[in-house]
């Protein structure tokens, strides 16, 4: 157990004592922490900065999942899946506060479990028997900055006021996925400059709690591409959408886009036995485009085309790919979408409009997934500049076996010339 506490600016920070064990995690300028025997299995929880969107959070899952994978090489750990809620793009007013949404709403948990052990947060609370988390580590940067890349992590004074405060009973309270009754027993700020899997020694040797929570886990990065490409793709392939959402997307494809898996050569198998080459998939007889508007009109104004220019660019793909249907995934308001449709004469334009029942059950996140699933099966896809929504579609198409020429395309800004309009980097799947 930790033997002492030091107070920094109102935060209780975990202190440390020297130990001779060379296997204990060594911080860059502090002695290692004491540790004792932990109960089994242990649980790893995590969260992401509130401002991060749905598709970036999916990427963070992969980082943490691969950390759990390497932890399980030595002792059993279970990843607790953080409930979804209140993301920027989830703005459908009639749904109210979209919080406490389990992962099973969006993803196939049995598929995830073929990679690592996972459990929903509410199931974790049932297993533990009370609303408690052992230790929370609030990840932050180094106050002094850095002039070179090197892996390191230290228990430090909190740079900014953290989201956790200690109550009169010594319990740490914070935004634990909007579960007000949940508390933590210990809390510390940790400055970290590290690959995700490099947290393993710290978690195994320097923590004693049955459950450990890493907040702002986006601070932990993937390993070097050359070393971790296959590991990334293994975790990514396990992230299959829920059967229900795939069925809704497939029904839309069949009804409106003359598309089904058998004709399109996109049939799924158990991902652990599924390997596709580029060009194996044909795709449905339609073009799909991710037409990002709203915040992108300001955040990336130079890279966002006018509606007229976007339509002009899309028409260039129709003849080479022999398609006369276009599916649009967009956050554009209705008036902009209808204006876009008017730019086409013979081409049929479609977008997915959820029923009230679908929207209430699967929320805005489910509707976004249906859009991505339909885009992933198109004969050709055209995305949006540096959008994680677009990136996730690229990955789905890599998994399904589409050619890279039909996948890695993006709309150019109306003011970009050919040299400025760099197309997306092609990232080949690894097995």
TrEMBL record:
Catalytic activity from the UniProt record: L-threonyl-[protein] + GDP-beta-L-fucose = 3-O-(alpha-L-fucosyl)-L-threonyl-[protein] + GDP + H(+); L-seryl-[protein] + GDP-beta-L-fucose = 3-O-(alpha-L-fucosyl)-L-seryl-[protein] + GDP + H(+)
Signal peptide location: 1-16
One Gene Ontology cellular component term attached to this UniProt record is: Golgi apparatus
What subcellular locations does the record give? Endoplasmic reticulum; Golgi apparatus
A single GO BP term for this record reads: fucose metabolic process
What is its pathway? Answer: Protein modification; protein glycosylation
Question: Where does the source fall among the domains of life?
Answer: Eukaryota
Protein name (record): GDP-fucose protein O-fucosyltransferase 2
Which Pfam families is this protein grouped with?
Answer: O-FucT (PF10250)
Instruction: Please provide, alphabetically and separated by semicolons, the GO molecular function terms listed in this UniProt record.
Output: peptide-O-fucosyltransferase activity
The record, for InterPro entries, names: GDP-Fuc_O-FucTrfase, OFUT2-like
Major location, coarse class?
Answer: endoplasmic reticulum
Enumerate the UniProt keywords alphabetically.
Answer: Carbohydrate metabolism, Disulfide bond, Endoplasmic reticulum, Fucose metabolism, Glycoprotein, Glycosyltransferase, Golgi apparatus, Signal, Transferase
Its Enzyme Commission number(s) read: 2.4.1.221
Q: Which family does it belong to?
A: Belongs to the glycosyltransferase 68 family.
Annotated PANTHER family: GDP-FUCOSE PROTEIN O-FUCOSYLTRANSFERASE 2
